[in-house]
Amino acid sequence: MENYLFNSYLLTTLSGLEKKKYLLSVRILKYLYFKGPNPVADICSHLKISTPNGNAILAVLMDQNLIEKKGYGLSKGGRKPELYGLKDDAFYVVSVDMNIHQTQLTIFNSVNEKVADVHTFSLELDNEVSTLEILVQEIRKFIEVSGVDFKKIIGVGVSIPGLVDSKEGYNYSYFNYGDRPVTSILQEQLNLPVFIENDAKAVALAVWRFGIAKNQKDVMVLFLDWGIGLGLILNGKLYRGSNGFAGEFSHIPMVEDGASCICGKNGCLQTIAAGATLVRKAREGILEGKSSLMSHYASGNVDDVDLRTVVDAALQGDQFAINLLSEIGEYLGKGISILIQLFNPGMIVLGGKMAEADQYLTIPIQQSVNKYAMHKISEGLTIKNSELGKEIGLKGALAVVMEDVFDVLGSVYSKKKAHLKK
Q1: Cβ 201 vs Cβ 234: under 8 Å
Q2: Which residues contact 62 (CB under 8 A, 6 or more apart)?
Q3: Do strands 153-160 and 194-198 pair parallel, antiparallel, or not at all (unpaired)?
Q4: What is the pLDDT along the chain (422 residues), one digit of tens a residue?
């Protein structure tokens, strides 16, 4: 039986009282997803409902195979309370992590476990319709091969570079087809809800919801990949700005009469401290005859040198790679100092391929921050690497869905009821 939370036809048949119970059910699922298994008393206290009402809704959710009892919690003086939590297969999310050269896919269950191996394929981002068609085909095929019940997929999350308006579903840098948002096209072709977000903001959500910055109120998350992305958690919320474009940190001009940037300006931070710049300098050094492990990793073809090559070489003690990262870290730290003085965060988290260089990047960044940021503002600030590792982008795409999907489930009901009343 298809569970009623994701049955759009059944939603239109609910009475006023059933509507209230439905919306409470959605709120309970959201609470259990983000907080984990909890006793009835805590669930009811959070939702401000009576215990009998809470028990009744939990019983419905159990009948629908969405939640189950998860053992017992700590006693507060009496019997240990029973814990209620989401079933592992209550629902699924398709996670799509894109960079300018390749895309990764996987599927997570309702307790954030991968239920399919990560599928990686090459895809150069552009505005060609054929590129989007390839993406759709790959997602469809991946879902089919996974064996996951299609009816239990509540959304597809897409983490992607570019100027993304997540509210309206547009990416003005890639898959920009004029009047029609890319999310609308994907939803039509996949027959699933689609949620899109800029890759750095998606990573910020992942770090805040699932990672080292959980429960922090003011956090800056730098996504250091081929480009430089910034996600801001301010006062306990993801900050998107008026048009959704907040965080374009890499396009702050830093060098007078510097190199041209893809944004059209000259001397942006992107041109001196991004992963693409790091790779370019590594390739140029190898061609000039610099002694480096990267020559061995590249098997004689300098074009094979990429971010992973440089980071791996540095971790193996390669001095040329370490020096390149140190130079990049100096520039990043100078830029970060500006952000520190603007936003006064309590924590800065580094993620992405370049951040995997660990101390070879964090130490020069910290030294640069010490040099350029006002001490009183930066004291107490911690700069840490994300522990989410190589799948941080996939976790980001997951977080994009889970941040909004429960609100969407509630609004779907409200819109359908309003339509019926006309």
Answers
A1: no
A2: 68
A3: parallel
A4: 344 555 544 455 556 667 788 888 888 999 999 999 999 999 999 989 999 999 999 998 999 899 999 998 887 777 888 999 999 999 999 999 999 889 999 999 999 999 999 999 999 999 999 999 999 999 999 999 999 999 999 999 999 998 999 999 999 999 998 789 999 999 999 999 999 999 999 999 999 999 999 888 999 999 998 889 999 999 999 999 888 888 888 888 888 888 888 888 888 999 999 999 999 999 999 888 888 888 877 676 888 888 999 999 999 999 999 999 999 999 999 999 999 999 999 999 999 899 999 999 999 999 999 999 999 998 888 899 998 888 899 999 999 999 888 877 766 544 444 444 44
Q: How far apart are CA 15 and CA 17, in angstroms?
A: 6
pTM: 0.86
Closest C-alpha to 249, from 259, 260, 241, 237: 241
Q: How far apart are CA 286 and CA 206, in angstroms?
A: 36
Tokens linked to 285: 């050094």
Structure tokens at 21: 């119970």
The count of C-alpha atoms lying within 13 angstroms of the C-alpha of 324, restricted to the half-sphere facing its C-beta, is 31
Buried-state track 27-49, b at ≥16 Cβ within 10 A, e below 16? bbbbbbbeeebbbeebbbeebeb
Beta pairing partners, 95: 106, 157
Quote helix, strand, coil % in the chain, to nearest 5.
50, 20, 30
- What residue ranges in 79-218 does DSSP mark as E strands? 82-86, 92-98, 102-109, 119-122, 153-160, 164-165, 170-171, 194-198
Sheet (strand 153-160) strand order: 119-122, 102-109, 92-98, 153-160, 194-198
Give me the residue label for tokens 């990560």: 118
SS3 88: coil
Report the alpha-carbon distance of residue 117 to residue 50 in Å, rounded.
Answer: 43
